[in-house]
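Notes on consecutive records. When two proteins share a document, each keeps its own sequence and its own token line. Never mix them. Below: protein one.
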Amino acid sequence: MKVSSINVVSEISQKDFNEKYFYPQKPLVIKGLADKQIAGEKWTIDYIKNVCGEVMVDVFDNNNKNSASAFTTPDLKMKFSKYVDTIIDDKPTTLRMFLFNMFKCKPSLRKEFPCPDLFKGVLSRAGFMFFGSKGIKVRIHQDMDFSNVVLTQFYGRKKVVLIEPKYSDLLYKLPYNTHSLIDLDNPDYTKYPGLRYVESSECVLEHGDSLYMPSGYWHYITYIDGGFSVSYRKLAHSINDKIRGFVSLCVYMPYDKLMNKILGDLWLVKKENLAEIKAEKAIQKIKEGYDKLSDVQLQHQ
């Protein structure tokens, strides 16, 4: 698998962002974007703990992996302060939090970190927090609504691997949901030969850094340290991605959960078989392209 770095800037205008990244759907790291707001200096892990400490939160255990469908049901409920202690200790655990609606719990936080100007739109008021302990890995997936995302890191370091949606079949995407079963840390090219044709890009986010992830991009995240980040969303730029997001949320996800409930492991096996068939077709198409290119080259010799 070919790996490249994501473009990095320290400053960018709205015009350049739209023309070079948003419209063509290319990822970008913006260094220190959070430092332009109150949260950049104020949001330490202790500060967030003090503000949200008494809030009861949903916590997910990475050991309880549900490969057949998306994570929706929490494994634990606890006070936010108790969970954050696992991050402060910076010891490996399997517990993480995601899609924590911080502004609903503590509206005052919105004033300290509103949606960055570059990314404002109809979803600007919906900010979500993501927390993980050292060593936590978030399985490779696409976001179900196919929105664009800007992810800002506030504590600790986080490695993010991005893959364009055009490689979905080669990633053995499971039908009716937005993830696959591959392990990017230990790619099995024998079992999943399509991975040989996939290209990815990656970065490491530090405090204050923001990553723009275009609509439908696959992302695989590793918490290098215990830490947290905040995401804002913006509707997909293209009509096709808007429709894809609607169908994913309102049709595919409910259907997938229903079939998983009815058929259990048999449903997962069926989806895996379909994913392998699609991958084989994608591989064959690539090989045919290589053959045509070779024929053209021979004709010009």
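Protein two starts on the next line and is unrelated to protein one.
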Amino acid sequence: MADGRPPEPADLAQRRAQTEAAFSAIRPPREEGVQVEDRKVEVEGGQILVRTYIPEGVERPAPVLFYLHGGGWYMGNLDSAEAECVIRAGEIPAVMVSVDYRLAPEHKFPTPFDDCMAAYTWMLDHGDELGIDAARIAIAGGSAGANLAAALCVALRDRGVQMPCLQLLDVPFLDFTMASPSLRGPESGYGLTAAEVHECAELYVRTDEDRRDPRVSPLLVEDLRGLPPAVILTAEFDPVRDDGERYVERLHQAGVSAACMRVLSHIHGTWVIPGSVTWGLVRDVRLAALRRAFDGTLAPQPAF
């Protein structure tokens, strides 16, 4: 290409292979002293895998980080999640559960969402085996995974299921009606584009009605009261930037504790690349949010 960029992948398989190779290059080595196991979870129409990380000697019952990988609903897996998540189980310390939900377009909405719900329910049902504290669950995800995490929190509230104590949302895409101004602004010329956001949406949903479903567009949910506290990270040059920033405003209006931090001079999720100042600082923010959520000091308590 004249501009030095690689050619666009010809099909989804090639895109997936390129993404897997990129994340493989930055995937950290496994932590010593952490038991890693892939477990099968029954879902409608088949099985999915969840990967559990249990640090040796972690105090039981332990807090849990429930992680949903990104990739536009059509890419990503358990291995890419290890590079994307950055947080290590032994550092918190906590049990970690990562979900290999089925991907679009082979499995369109609601399958990825339903898989995440099934994995979350499986985790609660196997709490004694995993040694977890159901009152100290944090749900986290990046990009599409952040969308699934936010939507899952709404569904858990509405179904009366044990909710997380924190939703940690990294560059979330939360409004499939594409109403955020950042999706209509000038392109940075790098990274995720508005056209690619539209493409991801087309791959994931079937109809315009799906786009307004609360399991797809949590930003459009009329009542956000009673949701877990949220920590949201957005990037300055990200077409979905305003989704996360609009969401924190909506949460505040509903009386939900939430913080949003915009990372300047960055495109969609680029702080997953290790070695930069931003990578280290974003990692510290995530760890601090998790530790405060787990020890009960994240959200300020009323003085009366």
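For the record: The mean pLDDT is 93.
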